[in-house]
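Fold description:
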Amino acid sequence: VFFIDIFFTFQVISCNKNICTLQITDTTGSHQFPAMQRLNISKGHAFIMVYSVTSKQSLEELKAIFDVIKEVKGDLEGIPQMLVGNKCDESEVREVDSQQGQDQARRWGCGFMETSAKTNYNVKELFQELLNMEKRRSMSLHLDSKKTRSQFRKEKLKGKCVLM
């Protein structure tokens, strides 16, 4: 699971001819400090929950972390989230097939992708997809907040006298 925590790395990716910098924190082991984990979740804007496809237990352990994210953030609607099955290059020792990961992602309402940090498979694409999710969310919020002139006038006139 990645969200703001103990140490920072930066990933630079291109987004519509602009350069975007993502601040990423590896929270491995943060379960030993639940207060710190909750604080960092509250400050996080996006979440990548990573399990190993070679360990069914690693996927099971994410369920508790997802529950904490849900509890701290409240409504997760629109918050960019990805469930990621890493080590997909190790097919001979796979314990979690791709369909199981997709099913879990659907239950949690988040995106899904398999990666290999070893071969760099889908790593850049993962961060690009997370950024695309954030851009779609921002655009949706922006469009929802715009009102037409007539909507604005109707709201302004609500509760006023009407001439007939």
